[in-house]
Amino acid sequence: LERLSQRRTDPVTGERYHTTFRPAPTPEIQARLRQNPKDQEENIEKRLEMYYSNVKALEDFYQDAFYVNADQDPYVVFEFIESCIIKPLPYKKI
Length: 94
What we know:
mainly alpha; two-stranded antiparallel ribbon; transferase; kinase; ADK_active_lid_dom_sf
């Protein structure tokens, strides 16, 4: 929620910033930053509610899907996905 709700865009350059992790470099740029309406907290919460209400049905439908931990180096994520597509790891169905 924090990561999404703090995103901002500079309408002049199109550059993206984050109020905590990548703040605008100057007060001038900071003053003109805009937030996308989808990034407001109440809209993010609605999207999360929708996700959590549908995730079980999706997991049941896509039984052969695999879980990707995307909180890693992009190269590691790519290698994992590639390994699942090219040579799937054996697993025991529950």
